[in-house]
Design goal:
The protein is an alpha+beta fold and 454 residues long. 61% of the residues lie in helices and 10% in strands. Helix 4 packs antiparallel against helix 5, helix 4 packs antiparallel against helix 6 and helix 5 runs parallel beside helix 6.
């Protein structure tokens, strides 16, 4: 009887080591598969039996194949990924906003300084039509550059809105995929953990964390419930799609606003706070510029004795994008301080007064010069961009550390798997040798016992 038990014991060793080798091969085949988790064969001693000599071991049992997954590391990676994606998205968009502004080489400061210089030249030669034309041309260049910056920022906003819409669509698609995976996992979990389906589930949760700041809550049966901003969007085999409103906010089916994180949260923060703030500053510069120049120009007279009219015009609320030069005739520039008739007056006093606006505190409620207001806009944008980039870099280092820790725990190491494979191969050879030895013993017992003397 014990010989047949020995055969069963050896057979259990063969089966266990075969399972180990199959799993090792699966691990090595998926070493570069995104989201794959290293799998481990769980072994336990088989139930012993009582022999005439006492309790004897009966080999080994395979109790299951589990994933080397750490829920704590998953949570830390997803939380860090959510934060880093938001920081990085804002940093990238702010850098693009700063690029559009173009300071110092092709920004607003240069054309603004050229306006003051043009009026100074006109003050020294008020009767020179070339100097007057140059002053109007400098004004036109300045207003065009301000319009270009405003238009460029509007283009950035349009691109971000398209990216936001595409991201929401992608998130809804992933939510649907996760609901289907939950259904498949629920159906398969009765016969053991469907490890490869669980890997797909976790990969989707990782991606949702990065895109929208989702949190995954895994149930005992392996299915996952996904929560975004306090709203449960996946529960079992059902998913709840998100809706992107025209104002850039996101709502669930009940109409409640969802506070998204991740990349989508970065898009929303840029559209609702960052860009409108800088656009408002630029509109303020345009408004103050038009107000100051128009007021001073109105104090002078053109050669025909007419009081100066407005130099610049704009539409309230969208000053930067609509700022334009009203005057087109250089002879209508009111550069003199006295009326001309019956003889034109070319004293250039008002031209100098226009040039002196360079140092007048006529912007930001009388606290800054016009050039200072532009410098303030540039400085605030540069500081915001640098801060966002620094935060993104710091969070990226933290995420990399978290990801490395998780990869070390659950990733596949070729060297380690090769070592395990050789170990399993030796164990397989040993179990096979036991079975061969038992077979030889049985052959002796059955075929050779009682043949002595024949």
């Amino acid at each position: 009887m014990s010989e047949f038990v020995s055969l069963q014991t050896a057979l259990s060793g063969l089966r266990a080591t075969q399972a180990r080798m199959d799993t090792i091969g699966h691990n090595m085949a998926n070493v570069d598969t995104p989201g794959y988790t290293r799998q481990i064969v769980d072994l336990t001693e088989a139930a012993p039996y009582q022999s005439v000599s006492g309790w004897m071991g009966a080999g080994v049992d395979v109790t299951g194949i589990t994933r080397a997954r750490d829920a704590f590391l998953d949570a830390r990676v997803r939380s860090s990924s959510d934060t880093q994606a938001g920081f990085q998205t804002r940093a990238d968009l702010l850098q693009r906003t700063e690029t559009v502004l173009g300071e110092p080489s092709s920004g607003i400061s240069g054309p603004l300084a050229a306006v003051w210089s043009a009026f100074e030249n006109a003050a020294s030669s008020p009767s020179d039509s070339g100097a007057r034309t140059a002053a109007l041309s400098a004004l036109g260049n300045l207003t065009t550059r301000i319009q270009q910056v405003s238009s460029g920022w509007s283009q950035v906003a349009g691109d971000v809105k398209q990216s936001l819409s595409a991201s929401v669509t992608d998130v809804n698609d992933k939510l649907g995929q996760l609901a289907k995976l939950n259904q498949a996992i629920g159906s398969a979990s009765s016969s053991g953990a469907p490890n490869d389906l669980l890997d797909q589930r976790d990969l989707l949760i990782d991606q949702l964390s990065t895109e929208v700041g989702a949190t995954g809550i895994v149930s005992p049966d392996g299915t996952a419930r996904v929560v975004i901003g306090g709203l449960s969007v996946v529960d079992g085999s059902s998913s709840t799609p998100l809706t992107l409103r025209t104002d850039g906010t996101i709502a669930g089916p009940s109409g409640l606003t969802v506070n998204a994180g991740g990349k989508i949260g970065g898009y929303q923060s840029f559209l609702s706070t960052d860009l409108p703030g800088y656009q408002a500053r630029l509109d303020g510069v345009a408004t103050d510029l038009a107000t100051a120049l128009n007021a001073q120009h109105a104090a002078g007279f053109s050669p025909d004795g007419q009081a100066g009219g407005p130099l610049l015009t704009y539409t309230p609320g969208v000053a930067a994008s609509t700022l334009a030069v009203v005057l087109t005739d250089p002879s209508k520039l009111a550069l003199s301080s006295a009326a001309g008739p019956p003889f034109p007056t070319f004293n250039g006093v008002n031209a100098q007064a226009l040039a002196d606006l360079r140092t007048a505190t006529s912007a930001s409620g009388g606290t800054l010069t016009l050039g200072g207001a532009v410098t303030s806009l540039v400085s605030v944008l540069a500081a915001g961009t640098a801060s966002a980039a620094s935060s993104a870099a710091s969070q990226s280092s933290l995420l990399q550390a978290m990801t490395s820790a998780r990869q070390g725990a659950q990733g596949v190491s070729i060297d380690e798997e090769m070592t395990n494979m050789m170990e399993a191969q030796r164990a397989y050879q040993a179990a096979a040798r036991v079975m061969t030895a038992v077979d030889q013993n049985l052959d002796t017992l059955v075929n050779h016992t009682g043949m002595a003397g024949r």
